[in-house]
Amino acid sequence: MSDENAPSFFSATQRRVIGGTLLLLSVGAAVAAIMLAFIVLSRLVGFFSGVLWPLAAAGVLALILRPVVTVLEKRLRLRRPAAVVLLYGIFLLLATSALIVVLPPAIDQLLDFVAYAPSLWANGTGYVEQHYPQWIALIQRGLVNPTVHEIAEGLVNELKTMLSHAFPSLRAAGGGILGLFTFGTHVAIVPVYLFFFLLARGGSIQKIGHNLPFLSTGVRADIVFLLREFVAIVESFFRGQLLIGLIMGVLLAAGFTLIGLKFGLIIGLIVGVFNIVPYLGTIVGLAVTLPLAFLQPEGGWRLVGLVLLVKIFVQAIEGWVLTPKIMGDRTGLHPITIIVAIFFWGTAFNGVLGMLLAIPLTAFFVTAWRLAKRKYFNVPA
Prior knowledge:
- Helices cover 83% and strands 0% of the residues.
- By secondary structure, the protein is mostly helical.
- Helix 4 crosses helix 5.
């Protein structure tokens, strides 16, 4: 009897329904497996963050400084270890010069800012009480409500938790002397990791393919391509962001000092460094400089306007000159994608480690998706 005449237990419609159901179940199982693996990975990264972040910091610094070591090695005809030692010596010389020239006034302004913070808070609350008493009354009535009070306490506790995850030093401070010692050990080991990472000449990614003989040639090529793209993105992104952050810090410090903003030197430098994480410097800078400009002695709306002009001017230089010249379009990500990626990876990896790696990781997955579309779905990338 032929297959066409054989009796079928299900009709054609039922077979289509069953096939669709099985497809949905398989897709759901695959998504659940991916989510479970991601959750396990994020928990492991969070648990071993004290071990991983020194390695990550040293690895990123090695990618940034490796071209400098190569130049010293070739121009001065030095061996690789001698070039690395020379780089460390140059860094110590520059750091010592910074300690002598820049650090004293910066620390002086930082201490003054910490001492001035209670006065700034008092000036702010006094201004609000004088000009907007209805808001004060509304807040007081809200805090009397048990539900609102509980929500406020929850937000404060959540902020403390977020800060402890974001900054290992705060978590270490909460752990007492042993925690501070552990954190100090992690910081001290970064130069050791960095030294050995710099000794490597690179090109080790190409060797990964030879260590995966159990995979097909095409899969090995894809893995090597993705790893090479990821390393290139991390290298260009952090090298560019670090240079852009330093330039912006100098410009902001000079601008804030010239217009008469209190503590303009230290605030400008810190805000510039925060720009290593995209948009963090802008958010922190506006949150600190605008109230300070409005509430400081001889401040007001005029000084607020000058602060905004300085910020717009430096941001325009960053957007029109620095980023196109230094970084170009290496990541190719939309600004909204960058913001979402920072929050997503920061939450997934429990802190600043995920925020710093947000752009490279997202760009890596975008590259992987483009490769999959071009190779497996026949869609132009």
